[in-house]
Design a protein that fits this description.
The complex is a heterodimer of chains A (about 300) and B (about 375). By secondary structure, chain A is mainly alpha-helical. Chain A has a single domain (about 1-290), classed as Orthogonal Bundle (ABC transporter involved in vitamin B12 uptake, BtuC). Chain A contains eleven helices and four strands; from the N terminus they run H-H-H-H-E-E-E-H-H-H-H-E-H-H-H. Chain A has helices spanning about 1-35, 40-60, 65-95, 100-125, 150-175, 175-185, 185-190, 195-225, 230-245, 250-270, 275-290, and strands at about 130, 135-140, 145-150, 225. Chain A has a two-stranded antiparallel ribbon. In chain A, helix 2 packs antiparallel against helix 3 (about 65-95), helix 2 runs parallel beside helix 4 (about 100-125) and helix 9 packs across helix 10. The radius of gyration of chain A is 20 Å and the shape is globular. The termini of chain A are far apart. Chain B is of the alpha/beta class. Chain B has two domains: about 1-145 and about 280-345, Rossmann fold (3-Layer(aba) Sandwich); about 145-250, 3-Layer(aba) Sandwich (Rossmann fold), CATH 3.40.50.2300. Chain B contains 13 helices and 14 strands. In chain B, strands 7-6-8-9-10-13-14 form a seven-stranded mixed sheet. Chain B has a five-stranded parallel sheet with strand order 2-1-3-4-5, with helices on both faces. In chain B, strands 11-12 form a two-stranded antiparallel ribbon. The chains are: A mainly alpha (about 300), B alpha/beta (about 375). At the A-B interface, helix 1, helix 4, strand 1, strand 3 and strand 4 of A face helix 1, helix 7, helix 8 and helix 9 of B.
């Protein structure tokens, strides 16, 4: 029984780490301009394609060792996905910066449809896949059972934690992070103090996209398959994770992601996988009733 | 990438020119409806290739009493709502007299209501849900078997050949997938075997690890899955990754090379079992047609020849009874048609009189073979 529980915990953690990485994109954008970037799931989907393209390019140039291959692919995917993030903001959101709050939301939904169809037309509607990069399994005896974790999942957990730690360090301790936080707290004041807020907003989109790019590489490595529709469900789950953890809060997104992943896995394992989504959304409702700002979100203060 | 970008608009333009040029004459319009986009688009491509080749061959041989057949494409993306919209467009705008489609049973069900109301002759090459022909629709036919037949073949194989004691039944909560899983479950129960686990997963997801751990803890002999390859692939891969050695058994919605891509390689699909109609490529009737496909660089796998045969059936009915759909339906129910898949005949409900489900196995090279 302990082995079963532990195994589901590992399943949940790997799933949750990915939710968390994507949730960062939702939460940072919301924190800084108060809009929900519904095209973010599609950015993740694009990054899965970029990962496959990167791998193909590298092996074409004769690089076959795993560390080099994965390192090169990560850099390539994160950089190009970042460019996508920047471009999306520049085309779809910046022109609407001072319009009503709903305009960029609709623009985001449109962007999401455009990206989906762009991937479908340019890459074909078929399932795409990459070969298995990392094989091997770690097994532990726990109580009366065996708990096992593939090296790919170990890599996912390590890379996701490293990505989150790096981002937290940037936001907390660097000049760049201070600028971001200042803009988040008060955009007008920040710009009066000489911060180019448009550039900061672009930067936030790039960071969010880069995290989605990291998630894209990790997920593609793990499941080996993706299609142009891959961003939809995972995008919704990541958005849920961001709300659960408190939208606008960086540690909240990570915590929300992990919590959602673990809740889904444990419920599917112990009760029924038919209703695991019902359970996670019920959990969300309960948490929002008692903490409307989410787990780690700051409460809304009405300024008088 | 750039090539593909170029090719698609070009095809659309050419198809557009052709259809406007030809629609001026009196011709027989036939809709081909199925998933041309979306996760199941590979089956739509099979339909289109099969139907187009059939039309080319029939038109070259003189058409239907001198009238040419013209195809109209309708994309439902395997979504029920879009299927109804497409059905309405085919009926009202394109004014088709017959339809070959759809693919997903959940699309065929609502779309066929539209066709029935408009009196359009409908043959589905691949929808296997039993309910489709149980609704007293005069013009509804299928070229394939039914899931209750498929489920019985699967259940008998699991019990008689695999000697399975513990069977897990998983489905994808879709009309087709759950219908097939239920049919198999019922066939198992009829023979006194109760499954040890019956659960659903969500279409569109890729992570089934939690479910796989649960399956593994039950130590089953066989895992039966009612669903399609986008979910079947990751499911079998995650089973193997977690060391679950149970046999993987599924139905006629994993009959595509994409199953191997979705699973991440032939090492994962090795040994996967599935039920599908007797491989039409092994029959003498279709030899010359199959060679035509191969000469064009397309392997007529899965439902390609089913779509070809559906067009042949429509042409035969119109040749035999004229373009009146009511008479054509009656003609189909009282005559047999020589198709690329052999002689086919239909009963009063529109089901094939003889269903020919057999078991296939995937090998370690990523190909499937009839057992």
């Amino acid at each position: 029984m302990e082995a079963f529980f532990l195994q589901q915990l590992i399943n949940g953690l790997t799933l949750g780490a990915v939710y968390g990485l994507i949730a960062i994109g939702y939460t940072m954008v919301y924190g800084i301009i108060g809009m929900i970037n519904f095209a973010h799931g599609e950015v993740y989907m694009i990054s899965a394609y970029l990962c496959a393209i990167g791998l193909a390019l590298l092996s074409y140039f004769g690089i076959h060792s795993f560390p080099l291959l994965i390192f090169g692919t990560l850099i390539f995917t994160i950089v190009v996905t970042g460019v996508y993030g920047w471009t999306i903001e520049r085309i779809a959101y910046r022109p609407l910066r001072n319009s009503t709050r709903l305009a960029p939301l609709i623009s985001a939904i449109g962007m999401s449809l455009i990206l989906q169809n762009y991937a479908q037309i340019s890459q074909g509607p078929n399932q795409q896949g990459i070969p298995t990069l990392l094989t091997g399994v770690l097994r532990f005896e726990v109580g009366d059972g065996v708990v096992q974790i593939t090296w790919t999942k170990v890599f996912i957990l390590a890379a996701a934690l490293a990505g989150m730690a790096l981002l937290t360090w940037i936001i907390q301790y660097t000049r760049l992070g201070r600028i971001c936080r200042a803009t988040q707290q008060d955009r007008k004041m920040a710009s009066i103090l000489g911060i180019n807020t448009d550039r900061v907003i672009s930067l936030v989109f790039v960071i969010g996209a880069a995290m989605a790019g990291l998630a894209g590489v990790l997920v593609t490595m793990n499941y080996g398959t993706f299609d142009f529709y891959a961003g939809f469900i995972i995008g919704i789950k990541a958005f849920t994770a961001a709300v659960l953890g408190g939208i606008g809060s960086l540690p909240g997104a990570m915590l929300g992601g992990l919590l959602l992943g673990i809740a889904e896995a444990q419920f599917a394992g112990m009760v029924n996988s038919d209703y695991k989504d019902v359970f996670s959304f019920a959990l969300l409702v309960v948490i929002l009733i008692f903490r409307p700002q989410g787990l780690l979100g700051r409460p809304l203060v009405t300024k008088v | 990438m750039s090539l593909k970008l170029l090719k698609l608009p070009l095809q659309v333009v050419i198809a557009g020119c052709l259809s406007t040029a030809l629609s001026a004459q009196a011709d027989v319009k036939v809709g081909v409806a199925g998933p041309f986009t979306g996760p199941n688009a590979t089956y739509g491509a099979q339909y289109w290739k099969g139907a187009s080749q059939a039309v080319a061959d029939i038109n070259a041989a003189g058409g239907i009493k001198g009238e040419k057949i013209v195809l109209v494409q309708g994309d439902d993306a395997c979504e029920p709502k879009q299927a109804v919209a497409v059905a309405n467009r085919l009926v009202d705008e394109s004014k088709v007299s017959a339809v070959v489609g759809h693919f997903c049973s959940s699309s065929t069900m609502p779309a066929s209501e539209v066709y029935d109301e408009a009196g359009v002759l409908t043959i589905t090459p691949g929808s296997t849900n039993p309910k489709i022909t149980e609704r007293d629709m005069k013009g509804m036919f299928r070229m394939c078997g039914r899931d209750d037949q498929q489920g019985t073949v699967a259940a008998n194989y699991m019990l008689d050949v695999l000697k399975a004691k513990k069977i897990v039944v998983i489905h994808d909560k879709d009309t087709y997938g759950q219908g097939l899983a239920d049919a198999t479950k019922a066939a198992l129960e009829k023979r006194g075997t109760k499954e040890v686990l019956y659960e659903g997963l969500s279409r569109g997801e890729k992570d089934f690890n939690a479910l796989v751990t649960k399956i593994g803890s039950l130590k089953p002999d066989v895992v039966y899955f009612g669903g399609c390859h986008p979910e079947a692939g990751p499911l079998v891969r995650q089973m193997r990754e977690q060391g679950v050695q149970a046999k993987f058994f599924s139905g006629d919605c994993i009959v595509t090379q994409e199953m191997v891509t979705a699973a991440g390689g032939p090492q994962y699909t090795n040994g996967v079992l599935m039920t599908f109609g007797n491989d039409p490529r092994t029959l003498a009737a279709g030899k010359s047609v199959i060679e035509k496909f191969r000469a064009g660089g397309f392997e007529p796998e899965g439902y390609t020849l089913y779509a070809y045969a559906s067009i042949q059936a429509i042409a035969a009915a119109y040749n035999g009874a004229g373009k009146d759909n009511e008479k054509a339906s009656e003609w189909l129910k009282s005559h047999s048609v020589d198709t690329v898949m052999g002689k086919k005949a239909w009963d009063g409900k529109g089901d094939l009189k003889v269903s020919d489900y057999v078991v296939y196995k995937w090998d370690d090279k990523g190909k499937y073979h009839q057992l």
